[in-house]
Amino acid sequence: MSNAQQVYQTVKDHLDANKFKYQTHDEELVITLTATGEDLPMPVIIAVDEQREVLRILSPIPAKAPEDKRIEAAVAVAAANYGIVNGSFDYDLDDGEIRFRMAQSFHQTTLNDEQIHYLIATAFSTTDRYNDKFFALCKGMTSLEDFLKAEKEK
Predict the structure, then answer these.
(1) Region 81-93 average pLDDT
(2) Are the C-beta atoms of residues 65 and 96 closer than 8 Å to each other?
(3) Taking all residues of the chain, what is their mean pLDDT, rounded to a whole number?
(4) Which domain holds residue 27?
(5) d(CA 42, CA 85)
(6) In DSSP terms, which residues pair with 54 in a beta bridge?
(7) Between 39 and 109, where is the model more confident?
(8) How much of the chain, in percent, has pLDDT values that exceed 90?
């Protein structure tokens, strides 16, 4: 079994032990699931990149910034990223998609259950902390000024 396959199996074992419902795409070494946080559901993609030897966890925000809010969303993403210790939000200026991303190399090693737990828990908690704020900004329910003010107060 390759390192990538071991990491993939460890992720599945961790999700099973924590009673997550998920879908596997074994040929691509990808797992998809939806986690429930304090507010919005969080779609999550866990991908093991065998070639690059990297585990990626992606969680797209359930709203894209419309064209007239794309610059504001870019500023909000930069402000959010400034205070994040691990992981970051990616932003596509062309279509307004915002997604949280964590990545961990497993080059010449593998990842154990504790490491997998840390990565998944961090991705879930960070996404949960920001998804409603980005959603509200994208939908015009809050202003960039209010978003930035809340970031400074945290």
Answers:
(1) 94
(2) yes
(3) 93
(4) 3-153
(5) 20
(6) 49, 105
(7) 109
(8) 84
Structure tokens at 150: 């809340």
C-alpha distances (whole Å) from 40 to each of 51, 124, 129 are 33, 12, 10
DSSP the chain: --HHHHHHHHHHHHHHHTT---EEEGGGTEEEEEEE-SSSEEEEEEEEETTTTEEEEEEE-SSPPPGGGHHHHHHHHHHHHHT-SS-EEEE-TTT--EEEEEEEE-TTS---HHHHHHHHHHHHHHHHHHHHHHHHHHTTSS-HHHHHHHHHH-
Structure-block tokens of residue 133: 């704020």
Written as six digits, the tokens of 51 are 């070639």
Indicate if the pLDDT at residue 19 is higher than 80: yes
Q: How far apart are CA 62 and CA 93, in angstroms?
A: 16
How many structural domains does the chain have? 1
pLDDT above 80 for 1:
no
pLDDT digits (tens, 9 = 90+) for 51-75: 999 999 999 998 899 999 999 999 9
Cα Rg of the chain (Å, integer): 16
CATH of the domain at 41: 3.30.1460.10
- Residue 88, strand partner residues: 101
The whole-number pLDDT of residue 40 equals: 83
